[in-house]
Amino acid sequence: MENKVAIVGVNLDSALDIEKSRERLIFDLVRGLMDDLGIEPTDVDTTIFATNDFLVGRTISNVFEDSPAGVYMRDESKVEMDATNAVMYGTMRILSGNYQTALIVSQGLCGHQVSPYLHISYSLNPIYDRQLGLLNELSAAAFQARDFLTKYGFGDDLMHAIAANSLANAALNPRQARQLPDISPQQVSESPYYYEPLRELHCYPPTDGGCAILLASAERAKELTDKPVWILGLGSSMDTYYIVERDLTVAPSATKAAKRAYEMAGISDPAREICFAEIAALFAHQEPILAEALGLMEASDAAEKYQSGETAIDGKLPINPSGGALGGHPIPATGGFRVAEATLQLRGEAGKNQVKDPKRAVVLGQDGICAQQNSVLVLGI
Predict the structure, then answer these.
(1) Which structural domain range is residue 17 located in?
(2) How far is CA 61 from CA 42, 52, 113, in A?
(3) DSSP 112
(4) Which of the residues 25, 62, 240, 271 could staple to 78 if both were Cys, CB 3.0 to 4.6 A apart?
(5) Where are the beta strands (DSSP E) in 162-239?
(6) Contact 110, 207 (CB under 8 A)
(7) Cα angle for residues 261, 263, 268 (degrees, 5° grid)
């Protein structure tokens, strides 16, 4: 990337049931971030909100968010759904040369105020799928899980191990909503079924929460922090809707997005050059599928990688050291959480979740049924 854009500050908040309104949550996130950086919202050149009108329950949902963010009547825009797309949008605005700073704000109250599955159900075919009610986010993920396990001859114990690894990491992380200390694969295997083979602890928990992230040009970043985290590459892609028989065991849109991000970052061997990954895997089985798409492992080697501890916080290539989306899924802020957690890691500020001496990270955010749309960012110091 010829011109450099940095992440100069992040602020997160999440809970299974947060006792705040959307407006109060946004205010606290932005106010806390501004206080950390010693600036005011009026010092920000542009703001980009990442929300979902359906989940919020009103169209043009950002119209009520600019005031609590302190950017009323200032330059602002909106990205529907995942916050990684908003981070990419903000990066491009800065690269245009018209802005020096971009504030990314994303939030979702999905714990108890709204069904988190409705927006996916209403994206399905309205004539057959939606009316029959047989296909939804969870049942589609169950099809994907069974296809994946069958393709490589894995048993359900692999999903138990992946989930236990993520949930153990989440239990160390005070920024995660789902806290299950001392979780074991056996406990995961005893959680109730949603759709076979998916059990409750294989799946994301509906979560309340949000994130605020400030991006800055190289020149402005020097004035705001002595720990900039650079956005080295980015890419986005979406699977086509007209493929009738989609192979759910692979993620071609994630592969394409990663290729674009790696080329921009000058990375040719991600398994060697990436220090850790923050992947928005909403279900346990999606983690190795998406890790393969990112060039970090062969999905067929997943059992060996997880059993050997290679993907653990202290492993050779940690995957989701923060706990990932199994620790919390505040739609649509989840990708923003992955960006923020990667930023804290690269700054050496991840606490008990800190990996050893990280230099580069890859972040993936997703949207759509079975990870239909993916955005990938490469971050470094």
Answers:
(1) 5-115+206-224
(2) 21, 7, 16
(3) S
(4) 62
(5) 193-195, 198-199, 208-217, 229-238
(6) yes
(7) 110
| Cβ(45)–Cβ(102) below 8 Å | yes
Residues in the chain, overall count: 381
Q: What is the pLDDT along the chain (381 residues), one digit of tens a residue?
A: 567 999 999 999 999 989 899 999 999 999 999 999 999 999 999 999 999 888 888 888 888 999 999 999 999 999 988 999 999 999 999 999 999 999 999 999 986 667 778 778 888 888 888 888 888 999 999 999 999 999 999 999 999 999 999 999 999 999 999 999 999 999 999 999 999 999 999 999 999 999 999 999 999 999 999 999 999 999 999 987 666 678 999 999 999 999 999 999 999 999 999 999 999 999 999 999 999 999 999 999 999 999 999 999 999 999 999 999 999 999 999 999 999 999 999 999 999 999 999 999 999 999 999 999 999 999 999
Instruction: Concatenate the DSSP letters of all residues of 21-86 into one string.
Output: -HHHHHHHHHHHHHHHHT--GGG-SEEEEEE-HHHHTSSSGGGGTTTTTT-TTSSEEEEES-HHHH
- Assess if residue 214 is contained within a domain: yes
Measure the CA angle with vertex 89, ends 215 and 216; round to 5°: 15
For 52, list phi and psi in degrees, rounded to 5: -130, 115
Please report whether residue 186 resides in a domain.
Answer: no
Give the total number of structural domains in the chain. 1
- Beta pairing partners, 102: 46, 215
Strands 276-279 and 360-367: parallel
The CATH number of the domain holding residue 50 is 3.40.47.10
Residues contacting 252, CB < 8 A, separation 6+: 237, 239, 293
Smallest CA-to-CA distance from 339 within 5, 1, 3 is with: 5
First to last CA, the chain: 14
Answer for the pair 200, 183: CB distance below 8 angstroms, yes or no. Answer: no
Would residue 342 count as lying in a domain? no
In a domain, 68, yes or no: yes
Say which amino acid occupies 352: K
40 exposed, middle or buried (CB, 10 Å; 0-12, 13-18, 19+)?
exposed
